[in-house]
Amino acid sequence: MKIDNVPYRSVWVDVDDGWSVHIFDQTRLPWSLDILRLTERDQVAHAIRTMQVRGAPLIGAVAAYGLALALRHDSGDEAMERDAALLAATRPTAVNLAWAIRRMLTRLRTTPQADRVAAAYDEAGRICDEDVIQNEAIGRQGLELIEEIAARRPGPVNILTHCNAGWIATVDWGTALAPIYMAHDRGIDVHVWVDETRPRNQGASLTAWELGRHGVKHTVIADNAGGHLMQHGQVDLVIVGTDRVTRTGDVANKIGTYLKALAARDNNVPFWVALPSTTIDWTISDGVNEIPIEERNGREVTHIQGRDAEGRVTGVQLVPDGSKAANPAFDVTPARLVTGLITERGRCPATADGLCDLFPEYV
Element (H or E) spanning 339, and its range? Predict the structure, then answer.
């Protein structure tokens, strides 16, 4: 994608700068576009934990490069396994992270120690390239849904999304936003309702920033406004991303997604989930009981960051002194509330049979 007409991916390697890894600091957006230079494993782990880099596909790709950076210091078996375990444990809910580390180890365990650094960079690069291809394919699959709505009637196609599942959350294109970008680029009149996505405001900060830079019409709304808009016929379609999908179609996504799915079902609004196949966890079937839900620091709820009248980025406290805050980062939307899944291989019902029809190798 492009920022001010300059093409970027969300992670890249600078060969001329000692094979350092570069990412955007997402905690600084939308106020400034800061690029972080990563040269150590611990820098990568910190960036993932603190959400300087976030988005299920992207943290998997960045963690893969983190292992490559670690191997530059010690490429022995014991160190490699230790470093891989540390990176895999940085965030628990998004399955892409563990998937990427497993894939790296599958190749590196059979690679001679002297060749491991080069192999690690190569494999991490392959993970990134495949993510771009998958997300572009997801965009084409989801575009058809938008085209069908646009063909039925005049006026804008109003799409609601939650959190950020755009190109800044992947290596490129995004998942839920990829069909929107493609529709916009084809001249379809599309408008996006952007949930603020408390408590970290990834919608208001990141999705709105992305859409604005690409010229897509959008309106930021409070998280609890979506149901009202659906009741009044102002939402044609909901598309969200996901951090983990069970083999039966349950979906874990940013906290608040479940409530959007309930409102969509009550108002007969299609609720679609966009994901690459790397987000499917084929080992579990009950999302509510089996997907680990990350509990983040309560300060994310009690405080908020913004820009004041003088242009300074600052934080303020929202709650009374002494009030405790709980901060589950994700919730699970049961498959029964999901209209369907949009993958790189096509669309399917959110069921075990639907997923197996697209991915028979996992049956």
Answer: none
Binding-site positions for substrate read: 54-56, 91, 202, 253-254
Burial class (CB in 10 A: 0-12, 13-18, 19+), 144: middle
Catalytic residue ranges: 243
In angstroms, the CA 22 to CA 25 distance is 9
Q: Report the distance separating Cα 166 and Cα 139, nearest Å.
A: 11
The closest alpha carbon to 156, from 122, 192, 125, belongs to: 192
DSSP 360: G
Q: What is the dihedral of CA 101, 275, 293, 51, to 10 degrees?
A: 70
2-130: CATH topology:
Four Helix Bundle (Hemerythrin (Met), subunit A) (1.20.120)
The CATH H-level superfamily of 142-362 is: Translation initiation factor eif-2b; domain 2 (3.40.50.10470)
Q: E strands within 17-151?
A: 20-24, 35-38
Separation of alpha carbons 11 and 8, rounded Å: 8
Give the length of the chain: 363
Q: Token pair of 110, please?
A: 């059979």
Per-residue pLDDT of the chain (363 residues; tens, 9 = 90+): 888 778 899 999 999 999 999 999 999 999 999 999 999 999 999 999 999 999 999 999 999 999 999 999 999 999 999 999 999 999 999 899 999 999 999 999 999 999 999 999 999 999 999 999 999 999 999 999 999 999 999 999 999 999 999 999 999 999 999 999 999 999 999 999 999 999 999 999 999 999 999 999 999 999 999 999 999 999 999 999 999 999 999 999 999 999 999 999 999 999 999 999 999 999 999 999 999 999 999 999 999 999 999 999 999 999 999 999 999 999 999 999 999 999 999 999 999 999 999 999 987
Tokens encoding 103:
């894939």
Cα-Cα-Cα-Cα torsion 122, 124, 130, 133, nearest 10 degrees, comes to: -100
The pTM of this model reads: 0.95
Q: Would you list the domain boundaries of the chain?
A: 2-130, 142-362
